[in-house]
Write a structure and sequence with these properties.
Layout (H helix, E strand, L loop, with lengths): L2 E4 L5 H21 L9 H11 L2 E4 L5 E4 L5 E4 L4 E4 L9 E5 L2 E5 L4 H11 L4 E4 L1
Length: about 130
């Protein structure tokens, strides 16, 4: 059974900015009676929903899958090393080295994610920086 972890959400400042911009676009479109301008909201709202629906899954064999809301699945096989950088910027604290390179992850519960990775892949090397 795969274990799922949510990613950290977009900060409230960014959500507030997106809402304010969306309301400004709606107000301008309604004021000028140009309803085609409302299609400009589909991109930012779609990307926001995509970010909010993203899940990180740890499979039983130790592989990591990132299931994004609308844009598909990214699969990372052969995880050889997990690096936890405490002093790095928030979204770059967990680095996974795999067969084709590396990936940075930002799970909401970092400690539980690291414990699950150690349990699913006991041969994986773990390092803290």
């Amino acid at each position: 059974m795969a274990k799922s972890f949510r990613v950290r959400k977009i900060s409230y400042q960014w959500i507030t900015l997106i809402v304010v911009l969306a309301l400004a676009i709606v107000w301008i479109c309604l004021d000028r009676e140009n309803y085609w301008g409302l299609f400009g909201l589909l991109g930012p709202l779609g990307l926001t929903l995509d970010q909010m629906l993203t899940r990180i899954q740890i499979r039983d064999n130790g592989d990591v899958w990132i299931r994004r809301g609308f844009t598909g699945v990214a699969r990372f096989h052969g995880i050889s090393k997990l690096i936890y950088r405490k002093k790095a910027w928030k979204s770059q604290q967990i680095v996974l080295r795999h067969t084709k390179g590396h990936v940075t992850l930002d799970p909401k519960d970092r400690k539980a994610f690291i414990a699950s990775m150690k349990e699913a892949n006991p041969m994986m090397e773990y390092a803290e920086e």
